[in-house]
Design goal:
The protein has three helices and two strands, in the order E-E-H-H-H. A hairpin with a 4-residue loop joins strand 1 and strand 2. Helix 1 crosses helix 2.
């Protein structure tokens, strides 16, 4: 029996020239053909590797348990919304001041733009 061991089944890529891949095998009566197919791999920087591994994990969880992921996301949003609602007196005045500030900046920008256009 012949077998092929390729990589570490999704383990961390540790060497400079390593990359994620799979092997395509073609067996016929006349020939046996092996082809290594390289997959997009993050650069060989440890933080990029951890981020890529986390993204692969998140995608696999999402594909396997989509409904549960949506449920958890909605629950988190409801908790955050509840916390914001409970403490709204503390941040509502700040939010109003911030909105007024953005409005004043936009109004000033429009006036300056009209002034510049008139000079031309």
């Amino acid at each position: 029996m012949r077998y092929i061991i390729s990589g570490g089944a999704g383990a961390e890529l540790l060497t400079k020239d390593s990359y994620y891949h799979f092997i395509r095998v073609k067996v016929t009566d006349k020939e046996n053909y092996l082809e290594v197919v390289e997959l997009p791999s993050p650069p060989n920087v440890i933080m990029d590797r951890y981020i890529a591994a986390g993204q692969m994990f998140a995608r696999s969880i999402y594909k396997e348990y989509t409904t549960i992921v949506y449920g958890i996301g909605i629950a988190i949003l409801l908790v955050i919304g509840g916390i914001l609602w409970i403490y709204r007196k503390n941040w509502w005045a700040y939010l109003q001041r911030l909105g007024r500030w953005f409005f004043e900046i936009a109004k000033f920008s429009v006036l300056k733009y009209k002034e510049i256009v008139k000079k031309k």
